[in-house]
Amino acid sequence: MRIVVRSCIFALLLVLCGLSAVQTADAAAKKEPAKEVPNKFEALKRFSQVLDLVERYYVKDATQTDLINGAVKGMLQGLDPHSTFMNAEEYKEMQETTSGEFFGVGIEISMENGQVVVVTPIEDTPAFRAGLQPGDVILSINGQPTQELSLQEVVSRIRGAKGTEVELTILHSDAKTPQTVRIVRDAIPLISVKSKKLEDGCYWVRLTRFSERTTEELKDALKDAEKESKATGGLKGIVLDLRNNPGGLLDQAVSVSDIFLQKGVIVSIKGRRDNTDRVYEAKKQSDDVRVPMVVLINAGSASASEIVAGALRDQKRALILGERSFGKGSVQNIIPLSDGSGLKLTVALYYTPNGSSIQAEGIVPDLEVVFEPPRNEDKDNPRFLLREQDLNRHLENGKDKKGSQSKAKKDEGKEQLARDNQLRMALQVVKSLPRLREIQH
User: Fold this and answer.
1) Residue of 255, 303, 325, 341 marked catalytic
2) 149, 161, 206, 268: most buried by Cβ count inside 10 Å?
């Protein structure tokens, strides 16, 4: 038996030596030192040795499955802030965020330099109402420091059953001392499009995220706007609001852009391998919207939002107004694994139609306008507020009379404009665009 084992080991060594000889010969042909050729077998051997030592001598009992999952998470976490490993439960939760109802506090987060950073709070959610802001750093969850956790573990701990409470220690971007916030979890609304008439023919259309039904919801909102404005001369201008929109599905970003474009490149994707490269182009459709447009962005506009803003800017279809966007220009693929777990892996960077990458740079607005909170609102919480009554086709409570309904609807746009200086400027610009284009021609 020992002879057989030794023979096998000897044969394996011969194979490895043969491979090493081939590698050395290849290196010599390329005039490169043989020592620079990486030896994958040595790396795997080292991993196996460490795994064995931890299983034998670590102070607590650790299963091989937990150790390997931890190693995989660490490997992906070391690549970039957006690549991660998800166990079966985490993978299921991730799928729910784009297709079904889920419970939590309602924030989009990212891992930046080892810190968990709030990209944006989702409107009409507990986190939004608690005052969380883009750029906030989450230091701990229920007393556990977030530096000990992966990004997906942070997400899992923040989520939970409806009505339960989670305690977050937050450091606001403009604060020197942390703040403890207790937030009660709730159902996160999946409505992604809101709209409102600002003036006759001019509409504000707000996209809160890019989920599976965003394009469908947007088309419905635009049809309602066209129908409502028919009596006053039709649709004359749109303010597309992407502020604090953390992104979402790439195909939805493409289809949303296509509603406003008739031809040309929307976005291109380039990865390390040729099979990841792809170019998405607009197609002429019967329901394309051609009226003048202004797009609102800020530091909370990320990923898919930046794809739309970049496409409409480079195609000279819309004027971009607001503040520089977040700057997430990478593309992640969700790869399911056989045991129900999954990988979220960065596979490419995306480029706007003019060929520029906004990774870590963001979209710079054509007209930079900093948001100013209304004087009668909390200056420490400079965010525009949107409620259920702002939703297009929202349900009434049954108490309103016809007179009060019409008056409330008439005043909604004025109230929104009164508390939002960026929106006021966007409305003035979108009304002026036709005249400006005549002057240019």
Assistant:
1) 303
2) 206
